[in-house]
Records
---
Amino acid sequence: MVGGIMNGATDLCDKVETLPKELDLKGTMNCSDKLAQLPNEFDPMEIAPPFTLEGNGVAEDLTSRNRDIVLGRNVHTISYAIKEPEADDDVTGEREAYMASVLSRYRTSLIERTKHHLGYPYNLDFDYGALSQLQHFSINNLGDPFIESNYGVHSRQFEVGVLDWFARLWELEKNEYWGYITNCGTEGNLHGILVGREVFPDGILYASKESHYSVFKAGRMYRMECVKVGTLVSGEIDCADFERKLLMNSEKPAIVNVNIGTTVKGAVDDLDMVIETLNKSGFKGRFYIHCDGALFGLMMPFVKRAPKVTFKKHIDSVSVSGHKFVGCPMPCGVQITRLKHINVLSSNIEYLASRDATIMGSRNGHAPIFLWYTLNRKGYRGFQKEVQKCLRNAHYLKDRLLTAGISAMLNELSSTVVLERPKDEEFVRRWQLACEGNIAHVVVMPNVTIDKLDRFLEELMERRLRWYGNGEARAPCVAVDVGPENCRCSDHKN
Amino acid sequence: MVGGIMNGATDLCDKVETLPKELDLKGTMNCSDKLAQLPNEFDPMEIAPPFTLEGNGVAEDLTSRNRDIVLGRNVHTISYAIKEPEADDDVTGEREAYMASVLSRYRTSLIERTKHHLGYPYNLDFDYGALSQLQHFSINNLGDPFIESNYGVHSRQFEVGVLDWFARLWELEKNEYWGYITNCGTEGNLHGILVGREVFPDGILYASKESHYSVFKAGRMYRMECVKVGTLVSGEIDCADFERKLLMNSEKPAIVNVNIGTTVKGAVDDLDMVIETLNKSGFKGRFYIHCDGALFGLMMPFVKRAPKVTFKKHIDSVSVSGHKFVGCPMPCGVQITRLKHINVLSSNIEYLASRDATIMGSRNGHAPIFLWYTLNRKGYRGFQKEVQKCLRNAHYLKDRLLTAGISAMLNELSSTVVLERPKDEEFVRRWQLACEGNIAHVVVMPNVTIDKLDRFLEELMERRLRWYGNGEARAPCVAVDVGPENCRCSDHKN
């Protein structure tokens, strides 16, 4: 119990002596006794990071661009190191100038990266200028949104407004729902499945194999038995396979993840058929349904012919991402569940003056304000218009791809266009496409204009000529992924 | 599979007919056939929220200020409802005016609430003006910080810089650590304990009873056996009790949560003694230690005589909050663990072009930039100064409380001053004190000045005269919480 910072310095000196030779510890090490006096003579270089930024704001590229996925490695591809300020930094202003330079380069790269972005379902079209006045407050919604906490710098009043809007959208009365604004879609799935497990402790988790990986992560975290169900070519859950698997496990209750838009193909599981399958397999009263509506949970209510996601059906929780269709500068999500389920999860926490049924204790209080602002500005009518525009543009893209002889598929209720995986990884990275096996996808969000799609198409067609024009290589067959009718490989075209 | 939004409208009309009478559905319901046409004649009022904001930007107070913690209730204390825009809102500008008015009132309340804040360990003193240029980008660090993702609008380069800084602080080499920037301290604990469980699947979770509630939440989520260990009056873990409990469960490995600053008393568990206890109880090679350094993980390296948190000792993971001592407008945290442990948690996720050992998939990309900015500006030297100031001010507060005859305690390594719980809840709320049983606490952060403490003290002393002055009521005895030597109740004072 003696030493503190002096110990720190000494230990580091010891460490330098015993470190392997190849470690390059930059900065002058000074282990003289004077370090024992605090505070003026503390030499921060003693614990300065071992590598520093070379030049002026140029990120250090420590490895070649290695895209292999390797377990057990820790790739420092690019990083902006933190450098201990010099004692005279305040005078020279060098520190501020250095940081301003890093930030300005970073901003330029963000503009470029935002411009070439098609693969992830993030609406990058928003203007939150009116909210910048709030950026410098430490807004934190601790614990349950419906129970006042003693911490006053929160935004519960916005959060509850947003939750009410969503509960209404999914038709659950105000006194029958509970929910909160999460950090992302994953947290929504973690929460929904946890509630399911608490309601049915010996329940088995069922999810189609095209579900988001967070669903299977939840199963592992929570030590649940987990059964993967097959899918149709569209990406929807295969209810025949679901039934078979239910019957094999009929003694235990079912906790079911239903995809309202799968990650890769944007396929919407048929909720009505899932419920019917459960009922006819003898699971009545013994199942819990979580709807993972990450993207389409908000689009579907505005799509003609879409099966309705509503709590009037036998579902138990719904989650949706806030940074996707709504558009929000940081990841967030909305989680709505039946209030009666929440008691099983709650515990009294005097520290927060709050029961806490959330997964995270501290929660970002800015996100609810962003959501509140957009929902208020656009309203249902505004979202409806945007959904229609996205669907129109997605159809445009799919039609043009097929016309150009490029394999493509678009599910009826979706704005996710699946296409053959471009041959060149550099092209994939440039357009930030998400890929799986032989397919890639473009998610048409409100910020994806016809003009942007045209540029993408032109570039893709021009590249394909290079890749496949001389006949040496052939475009991949993706019939198994998108169905033979949508495949344009040499075996399937026409 | 037919209907979509028309179905929505129709269902809502059906719903109105079958809803209980007491539900007040505002807005004109119009269920005529014309709703079947899209998009122009869709009437958004059909799905407008059932309650709306009265007046101009004044929040609706739906219940009286009920602070009871009641399970199974859903208290809509105050909320800013979201109202569907009128068709002519763009013309009249009323919508924008209404929202501007709500935001401006909210901002005023944030200023006031930020001014009177003492109970939570959040440093509210920061200036991130230089970063406002980045606010309108949708920055998302999906998956593992060390593996490039195809999504280009990220801030990994800042995140890795921050992680390197912390790994260095806690003395773990760059090629031996793994970590990420979390959403909050809770996520750090959830991650550390999950890794512990994956390393020792049948391990028992040990934590002192004064650990943060997220530790016990993790135990329940992960279906782990959990043993609560007693504490000393200071709040530190009682190693004698720990040893007894280890010996009762000697057949199973131990996963231990060590508090580097407990939530309520700011007590620092004696890490060296915990390790010694494990070794002498026969647990050598069969234990995992997670250090919950929510607040003090960053302060301790700068405190004289503090036991050192370092990976040179047998510890396995450390977490710290980013929005506490560092100060950050949204909750966040840093999690550092040994790289070798991470493989047990990882799974290959082609969708992200990334293995993902994080708990959350999508992560706020702004938080790393805030942290990077502050660490770069202040450096180790800056933090050292601030820590010293906080400790000085905390001593000042404790001394003045005791001198005034008010029970108070301050742990040696802490800036958390424990005091008798003020009698009046309104006073507690005004100063946003966190309370537990008969005690409350003030956490002296860099933004808590002597001047602010003086105002608090004056107000408290004046109130106490009213509460206890006429002898009808007596200040609570808190000897059991803070030790008789720190208690100033009528039984214990001198």
Note: Residues 378 and 384 of chain A are 9 Å apart (CA to CA).
---
Amino acid sequence: MAVFQNDTHLFTATESSIASTLFNSPPFQSFTVFILEVSSNPFKNIHSPAFLPIERTVPVDLVAADPEAETFKSSVANEDGDDNVTVAGFVLFVPSYTTFAGKPGFHVEDLLVRECYRRKGFGKMLLSAVAEQAVKMGFKRVEWSVLEWNVNAIKFYEEMGARVLTEWRVCRLTGDALEAYGDANY
Amino acid sequence: MAVFQNDTHLFTATESSIASTLFNSPPFQSFTVFILEVSSNPFKNIHSPAFLPIERTVPVDLVAADPEAETFKSSVANEDGDDNVTVAGFVLFVPSYTTFAGKPGFHVEDLLVRECYRRKGFGKMLLSAVAEQAVKMGFKRVEWSVLEWNVNAIKFYEEMGARVLTEWRVCRLTGDALEAYGDANY
């Protein structure tokens, strides 16, 4: 995603920074990730205490030859004795809140389908799963950001029923400008 | 805020919808609110298990005559036997996540200072408190949205060190378009 957005200079995450920050709370209460896994075998032993996995069967020619299958081999799949399962994408989202509705929502931080799995409906599957979860929980909004030059993504989101808000801008406080508030004297 | 944004038709929150959704988790783990209270008496018995309140003394002529002081009287203040404390504003924020940094951040959902308390530095105090909390927790980003025609707000945010991102757009899935995913067959 950093490559796609021309933002590799902003990428500083490590396996340890992610592992120590991302999975400290039950699903849906804070940072939550849905993982998209693909296998040419039927899945077995799919289990999750908080979420019933969504399973789809797609035509075999939709599962592309994956040049990085070994790198993205699923560790969960290994537990189940199926070493043929590959991580193809993910969606990361967090609860948000709308005071206008007095109800929570979800903010989708990242949606990514690995390149060789694109244009096969997997992105829609991931985003729809978030929307379905929101409705199940009585949440009233799902929001995310898109780069304005990414016309394919905008078309895709609009086809899913989303509106692209033209009059809002994102403000971001990061880096030294943020750290300056660490011992603020305001 | 709904009035200011010409969005009163979108406002459906009630005291009960807010009370049942907003205060179900410890501060900073999910939806969190900092309340700005003003009093012409010194505060007494300020206490909070999770957050050390920030106290500021301002010149007495900065505390405006408040035509709605009775409506916005603080219930916390009443517990302390001071019925002269008024809620002047709030900031509502939630944890977010940046996969680029592999670190959490805060997303500021609402920042409001009641009209008769504006242009006195209280908005900066509220937003700075969120930024300070982010730094204390090792969070790497504070983000929020602004209406592009709200040039005063944009100037204020830039003076606080924020960048206004011009190439991102917010996508929003709400109402019937969202509810349609409730029994999705995707």
Note: Chain A has one domain: 8-183.
---
Amino acid sequence: MPPAHPFDDDKLKEECGVFGTVGVSDAASIVALGLHALQHRGQEAGGIVTHDPEQGFNSARRFGLVRDNFTSEKLLNTLPGPIGIGHVRYSTAGSKGGTQIRDVQPFFGEFAMGGAAIAHNGNITNALQLRKELIERGSIFQSSSDSECIIHLMARSMGRNIPDRMEEALRKVEGAFSVVAMTRTKLIGCRDPLGVRPLVLGKLGDGWVLASETCALDIIGAEFLREIEPGEMVVISAEHGIQSHYPFRPAKSRFCIFEHVYFSRPDSILGGQSVYSTRENIGRELAKESPVDADLVCPVPDSGTPAAIGYSLESGIPYAMGIIRNQYMGRTFIEPTEQIRNMGVRLKLNVNRALIRGKRVILVDDSVVRGTTSRKIKDMILDAGAAEVHFRIASPPTAWPCFYGVDTPQREKLLAATMSEDEMCEHLGVNSLKFITLDGLYRAVGEARGRDASCPQYCDACFSGEYPVEPADMLEQGFRMKAAE
Amino acid sequence: MPPAHPFDDDKLKEECGVFGTVGVSDAASIVALGLHALQHRGQEAGGIVTHDPEQGFNSARRFGLVRDNFTSEKLLNTLPGPIGIGHVRYSTAGSKGGTQIRDVQPFFGEFAMGGAAIAHNGNITNALQLRKELIERGSIFQSSSDSECIIHLMARSMGRNIPDRMEEALRKVEGAFSVVAMTRTKLIGCRDPLGVRPLVLGKLGDGWVLASETCALDIIGAEFLREIEPGEMVVISAEHGIQSHYPFRPAKSRFCIFEHVYFSRPDSILGGQSVYSTRENIGRELAKESPVDADLVCPVPDSGTPAAIGYSLESGIPYAMGIIRNQYMGRTFIEPTEQIRNMGVRLKLNVNRALIRGKRVILVDDSVVRGTTSRKIKDMILDAGAAEVHFRIASPPTAWPCFYGVDTPQREKLLAATMSEDEMCEHLGVNSLKFITLDGLYRAVGEARGRDASCPQYCDACFSGEYPVEPADMLEQGFRMKAAE
Amino acid sequence: MPPAHPFDDDKLKEECGVFGTVGVSDAASIVALGLHALQHRGQEAGGIVTHDPEQGFNSARRFGLVRDNFTSEKLLNTLPGPIGIGHVRYSTAGSKGGTQIRDVQPFFGEFAMGGAAIAHNGNITNALQLRKELIERGSIFQSSSDSECIIHLMARSMGRNIPDRMEEALRKVEGAFSVVAMTRTKLIGCRDPLGVRPLVLGKLGDGWVLASETCALDIIGAEFLREIEPGEMVVISAEHGIQSHYPFRPAKSRFCIFEHVYFSRPDSILGGQSVYSTRENIGRELAKESPVDADLVCPVPDSGTPAAIGYSLESGIPYAMGIIRNQYMGRTFIEPTEQIRNMGVRLKLNVNRALIRGKRVILVDDSVVRGTTSRKIKDMILDAGAAEVHFRIASPPTAWPCFYGVDTPQREKLLAATMSEDEMCEHLGVNSLKFITLDGLYRAVGEARGRDASCPQYCDACFSGEYPVEPADMLEQGFRMKAAE
Amino acid sequence: MPPAHPFDDDKLKEECGVFGTVGVSDAASIVALGLHALQHRGQEAGGIVTHDPEQGFNSARRFGLVRDNFTSEKLLNTLPGPIGIGHVRYSTAGSKGGTQIRDVQPFFGEFAMGGAAIAHNGNITNALQLRKELIERGSIFQSSSDSECIIHLMARSMGRNIPDRMEEALRKVEGAFSVVAMTRTKLIGCRDPLGVRPLVLGKLGDGWVLASETCALDIIGAEFLREIEPGEMVVISAEHGIQSHYPFRPAKSRFCIFEHVYFSRPDSILGGQSVYSTRENIGRELAKESPVDADLVCPVPDSGTPAAIGYSLESGIPYAMGIIRNQYMGRTFIEPTEQIRNMGVRLKLNVNRALIRGKRVILVDDSVVRGTTSRKIKDMILDAGAAEVHFRIASPPTAWPCFYGVDTPQREKLLAATMSEDEMCEHLGVNSLKFITLDGLYRAVGEARGRDASCPQYCDACFSGEYPVEPADMLEQGFRMKAAE
């Protein structure tokens, strides 16, 4: 079960991936494949709900990977029908004592006019307030998930049909949400007004597909039609095709720029551009902004790879795999002995000693969170005899937590929240350390004039501290915004 | 359980990795780590044997990966002691109906002077003859493995001690063997006279380590001392250190050249050189031998990567990740439905469509076995809109089966056994297809003057059909050597 | 997993057992032991909820037996605290497609004033109507269980504290219920006004215990204080001890008489009398009512044993174990081959051939439901060479389904619903067949003057068709009461 | 996994049951059923070997119960063919650190003329000597089982066919053995010259069956033909039917008398008599030898039941179930907390308090081994308010260990080895304690004149210390025979 990055515990984690399909012959298999392609967005657990005219709604929710849980014919046969949705999750909002199976989406609710299931990517920033109010009115929550609010708001809505109820519910929630939902016959997709999280629409034979990323269309050979727009809700049925609504007050789009840097898969297309190419551009920008004389450009595998290639192409310094990742590493080294635990790093990565010895090495990584991993990697490279180590980071300093669906440490734990770039360089003990600038990053994603400070084109709160939606629950819990510091 | 290559079923498979240690405080953990680093040499099953003065010999043998079986404190506590050996296996010689747990090494035997365990990498080419003779004399075989012969030959030896018995036994077996064995106090390592399979010696604190590759020394922080020489047997004990013997008739070394091309890990050191660098050299040689005008050089992930980097560096054509591998793929998609099975390729690989469209693409792969995978990859690239596809292969055409410990298809199934390079190019439907020449490969591994046809420096039987040891059992079963064709 | 009777599929099945404790040092272990003693009341699944001042509410729900799920230190450590409740269940009301884990009790709800958990033994006869109304008002049901209504009614109550809310909720439900519930500090027990299902109160050190039967007090060495009275609600806390309420309109008690015949364990005490002795009395009454000249009295193991002993003592005919039960039979013969399936009976029972041959045998069984088992047993006995077979049944003919918490077949499937005693005798092919009379049964349970037809002392609807509570949901689904026939 | 007796740890344990069949359509299912019926003879593990003309030999060996391992269609399909044997085991001779799967029978060996499998009930008293000699000659043992000697002796035999080799092997082993073996076409059964362990022959359609007890014939509807005679070897094939040999020097039969008392199932037939009836006779003899004035005769469930019935019938004192066994108890309470462990007895047994209070109770048990259980039961009965407790034991004092296939504690641990009957009575703290006499036991099994002291009709070494076969290995390890004391 290889994580996207060998130092899992020092990375920001995308919380979720969502997928849905309607009008196909065997929805469950399609959903399973889609979720497999979205596995990088959440490895902790997954779930699928389908509906069949004869057998009604069926669901399966499991801890672990899609490939381990949702591929057997036996299981898929318990999920019949031409319509289905699915969800993979990492934990964000959830119970303190670890996720329980009841926290695993999709969530299902039976209403007077029939059942509905929803899967949510993002985070509802006023969930605690909503939860409190709903409990006072007699709702019983089954999970500790913020997303469960939506289904309770739908249950209490006076709307005559489920899409109406969903509109009403979503108008009450704040924050980031890309939602895929289903009734007996309708597949529904909706993005919040700022469009913080991605959601795309595809065509598969006579049917349709909604997915967090285009890579989930590719796996099933679906055609990529377009992105769902910020603030748009689509209702899709085999009978009536696609109907589009805009239930929210219009707002300027603020897509999460970190999706470009790290979360999305390199073979996905975001804003019309290959994510891989964007990351290569980031590397090129980095090389322009922060050149250094060296012998080799090496990625920190695997997520630093495209930026390292870009850095090499721009700088002319040869690209090489100085660090080799053990392909058989996985989450399942769960009960290591003390002895093994203390050898942590070597289990996952090894330095190509014969290659590195005596060389001046540029290491390209996607981000620095706590900095613990960067130190270990620097140690490995120096132990192997490198002459110099230069870190180049494909994102600006991560100094603020995300409240829109990404699992970030508390602010104090973020290295960049307490240190300048120079201090970090000294702290890590490397010859140089350079982050790409915010403007450089905006150029790399295609904004030729860089960031529009008066009205940023993206959500970049984790770098800038400028939160496009006020995090109501967090403020109540004492979080201090930038202006308040 | 990610295989080293996404198209597992169209690759040659190394059969085994071996590891042993003596003079350490907790041998089992050390062995588990070593086997984890050697996992690419065998993913089907693994086993560990240790000895403790008070608790005697203990063993654990399991199907599946090291990380899933040999990492819990509970299990490792059942394997106490300062000496131990281990084995990971793919299947080569084995039972028809699939490997059984009794086929999993190390094998153990209790002799009059005490117990011994052995782990074997390679293949015994006269195993069937030996087995028949041993059964007639009253030996009872527990497995279908060729390696079990060794322990029965040792049991029947008149030798006074176990190393003597092992020498006597190994003098009777033919073929390729790198063996790691243990008694209550001694760790034994031995390579066949030709040294077909690798075996290295390391130092860990006050103790010693034997391993198939140096990457298994790195994971535990052991120092690489030297390779065990072809035909050498070392007997190591905490008390007497290392003693070296040469029990066999001297012969010229014939190390397996495919270890350089594919089997060994890129961060291992073979013959004093980084495997990664050798593979980069192969790419450079390929670029010199078979240049072509193109826009991008893309590896077939992951094994084609170093050669693709070399090709790019030599040719100046930009390197890019045109094919993205799903990190969450594994062996455990075991019961896919018909629908999923038919979508095979997309589960594992996806093309970076936005990058590839309209480009002339050079694809670098390590080898072509049956050719089934190469066709699928070509289809994917063309579907994504590539203008041209040029295959460059980092090994010569694989036209002969290996009988020395590698799982190869029957000769008829090897594409290169029945087609010329041009025929293969047409069969695969690509714009060009070029293999590295045998001489080019020899240059890349450091033989400046190429292959010495009168007395090749390596075993290259899979390319040349020149077998350095006559495969006795196979000949009896009707295999026809090159001279006989 | 030995069922209480070897022909599980031809027995009425008690649906549930409930247990709770407060004021003890380790509630979870106590609850686990109590549930183990009540396992005969439900083998399909079980659950435990506890509360700890520091760690809040915790729960575990599992399919399978208590001994297999709730005995490990690891699990019990996840359920800390001095108060807890538990539930074992067979299925009665539940989802069509088999019970799901979300159907397993206790159910938990978080209210404005804190959480509560409930466990229910019985059946709510107006559950479907209540469910429909609650859904219309926005409640989301998580299970298909009738018992979930109670927690939703509590959530919507305006009551200031949880016991008040529970009173309000229980006043709205109809049918049979013995409920054990808990808040953070209070253990609550309540029986419906007719007291159809049992519930007893015990003292354990400084703490208290509620349980379905006294055998669950014995296992933990608790002292049996008294039965909870029909219509009584007790609220017990470590601080305030026991407080007793009577929230319902008073009614005459109608305890389930089948608890005496079959459901309760023979070592439990019901109405001041050992269940074992009551069953022995039933056997004695049977011998008086329906004597027959024979050589041996044999029980159908194991549930017929006490009545057979009573029959033997009264008649003077020797008691013998003519049928031997395989102790290793269990539910887990789940996937037998066709060949094994067809040998069904012999897997579980074997006749003591040498003993039976040529004898006139009286077989004592507790009840006849479909009659399928009785036929098989008769065949076995005759195959073994018995001269005569006489069935004596320790209950009157079961002719009506139970709607108060017992899993009975539809009326048409009950042998006694369509045949007279003589017709059944002929159908079964035995020399004689006699059921105890209703009056005889009442005498055996201690009503010296038999049944009071104007106002029966027990619920005997399964024999008489006189239902003490109108089964509202069933009537709506078309069930016809006796008067309507 | 309910043991035959609730205090497993204070009982003698039969070590094994064996079963074989030939000439049937699906041997594996037949063997599985037979082993299920013999489960009381060994619950730790089981194994089945079959042979099919096309698919050769196949085997499956598993820890746990037959019902949990050998009932799925999937597994049974891996064991095709018309001939098969099986084995269930408790541990006797075996590895110190717990049984390993390699110790589980049947054992298989491949000889020059083909394969053979054997299953052994009993114990080889010179196994250690044989093992030492075989190892010196080059045999490699795979298990720590005494039974493996047989297959190695067969491998080294010069016999031309397998039955000849088996004869030669069995002539070299000493002790008790009932062996079932198979070749590709022949089913072989053999009992040692004294016939210590049982073995019976049955007919099933056109095929034959060998089994430890007749209850294993009943479960499949096979006809009981006869017992295999002491010293007889039968070779059975579909083609040639049954051939009988007597390879050993003739000796007087010494069948294990404890099979009558406890090991065999009550519905089996031994020596022409129902075991149940024999045990009832033992109870009658006890009542004659040791009458006492009392109110109730209660069995210690379940094994004391037939003798208690006999005692009641002879004495006229009413029989009652004063102690109730929890049907859901099993081996799987494996990880109990300290708290649960300390409540040991109540988990398994409960006293029928309302029945026992104030009564003088006779408790009938089958044997006293260490006496630990008897004390606990006495405590339970007195706690429940019994006026008097009288123990009556259905076997003589167990004062000597068994070396013929029964797991007994060391001599010092046997209560009767160090105390007289009166001392034991005082030690247990009961009003009286009486064992049946040896002569009484012999009368109960049908020897009207009791035991022939000059030449006992049975093996009763555990009572008398008179061992019919000298226990060679044990003597070498220092065991002192009675004469030597």
Note: Residues 25 and 326 of chain B are 39 Å apart (CA to CA).
